[in-house]
Design a protein that fits this description.
Helix content is about 30%, strand content about 35%. The protein is α+β, with helices and mostly antiparallel strands. It has a five-stranded mixed β-sheet with strand order 23-25-30-27-28, with no helix packed on it. The protein has a four-stranded antiparallel β-sheet with strand order 5-4-8-9. It has a four-stranded antiparallel β-sheet with strand order 17-16-20-21, with no helix packed on it. It is elongated. The termini are far apart. The model is unreliable at about 1-135 (pLDDT under 50).
Length: about 400
């Protein structure tokens, strides 16, 4: 037996052909089915486009539309709600602003009320405490008309209302004066008693108090004290050692008190507000038209007197200078007070001075004046000898003339 090998293609060739035909037929069926499915899908799409849909599809679309509408409605509601909230917030803010404005007005109004009544709202104790938080001068002030008086002399005290007290307040108020050491220790009264006259039997410093009550509010005003003198002080003089100085050559001037008499015990001296002795010295470093210090002399009985001191003219260099004797050294002096420095060495301790009048300055030729207190009077030409010790290099002569004149020395 001979065996013949065969490939797979040789096995049941008919079956293979039939199988191919079946595969072809199946493929056609599948293609046809796919085509139908595609056609059906197209029909469905066409139906959807033509709104011919199944009830199920319609319901699905209806649900979808409803959901969109719901979302839109919800969004609209939220928008409306948000707008309403914003509106409410605006109203609330507006109401808050009005409330704040109303509150601010109320505070402002309240502040005005407090300001208008702040003075009268103060308690009596706070006013009497005289704290720095309140100026009592706004209520008023009181003081003696004269700061210094003699024992037994009438002293007038006066209350002057301040800017916050009206005339109406004074008319309806009640008042009380209290005087330390006075002839009337206390005085009660009304608007007619704002001025009081008191005397004192002792010397020293005495104060007073003015109390006023207006609408149940009390104010206590301390008054400026008065000084009452004891035994008198008389005869004092205060003289400088020069009437005019050139501060570049003589920068210091000295004053001395003399001739004071009193029965009130030991005397003390106060110069320019400071305690001192019977002499006072001051140095100058600039010109001054006429300086005189303030001097208070006091005794042990509290008597104080102010004594006038001679004025000293301070110059930047000599005011006028006579450097040579006779006509070559003359200077033209104006009417009034002039200070002339002598610089000529041959003067010695005594000298004579002269003045010549110009008829343009004095048509009559008359001259009336003094030189260091010595009379200098005459017509056209006048000369006078000065006491020993008046002259010498550096001496200053004070001329007091009623008209201008040309003066010299020899």
């Amino acid at each position: 037996m001979t065996l013949t090998s065969c490939g797979s293609d040789d096995v049941n060739p008919s079956a293979s052909k039939d199988s191919q035909d079946e595969d072809s037929s199946s493929s056609s069926v599948k293609k046809s089915s796919a085509s139908k499915t595609k056609s059906s899908s197209s029909t469905v799409k066409s139906s959807a486009s033509g709104k011919k849909v199944s009830s199920s599809s319609a319901k699905g679309k209806s649900v979808s539309s409803s959901s969109a509408a719901s979302k839109k409605s919800s969004t609209s509601s939220k928008t409306s709600s948000s707008a309403t909230a914003k509106s409410s917030s605006s109203v609330a803010k507006s109401s808050s602003s009005v409330a704040k404005l109303s509150s601010s007005n109320a505070i402002s109004s309240s502040a005005k009320k407090v300001s208008s009544s702040s003075v009268k709202a103060l308690s009596s104790s706070s006013v009497k405490a005289t704290s720095s938080a309140f100026d009592l001068s706004l209520i008023g002030t009181c003081a003696p008309t004269n700061a210094v008086a003699e024992m037994g002399e009438k002293v007038t005290w006066k209350f002057t209302r301040g800017e916050v007290i009206t005339v109406t307040d004074l008319l309806k108020g009640s008042f009380k004066w209290t005087f330390e050491g006075g002839s009337a220790p206390t005085v009660d009264g009304n608007v007619n008693d704002l001025v009081q006259t008191i005397t004192y039997a002792a010397s020293g410093d005495f104060g007073a108090t003015f109390e006023m009550d207006i609408d149940g509010i009390s104010y206590s005003i301390p008054c400026t004290p008065v000084h009452i003198n004891g035994a008198s002080i008389t005869g004092c003089s205060c003289d400088a050692d020069a009437l005019s100085v050139d501060y570049k050559k003589t920068p210091s001037v000295e004053w001395m008190v003399s001739n004071c008499t009193t029965e009130g015990g030991k005397l003390t001296y106060e110069w320019e507000g400071k305690s001192g002795t019977d002499t006072f010295s001051k140095a100058f470093d600039a010109p001054h038209s006429g300086y005189s210090p303030t001097l208070i002399v006091q005794n042990e009985e509290n008597t104080k007197v102010e004594v006038a001191c001679s004025a000293v003219k301070v110059t930047d260099g000599p005011e006028f200078t006579i450097a040579e004797p006779g006509g070559s050294g003359t200077v033209k002096l104006p009417a009034g007070v002039s200070h002339v420095t002598l610089e000529f060495n041959s003067f010695g301790s005594a000298c004579a001075v002269f003045c010549q009048v110009d008829r343009q300055d004095s048509p009559s030729g008359d001259l009336d004046g003094t030189v260091n207190g010595v009379a200098l009077r005459g017509r056209d030409y006048v000369s006078e000898h000065l006491p020993s010790g008046s002259c010498g290099p550096g001496a200053v002569l004070e001329f007091v003339l009623d008209v201008p004149a040309t003066c010299g020395a020899y």
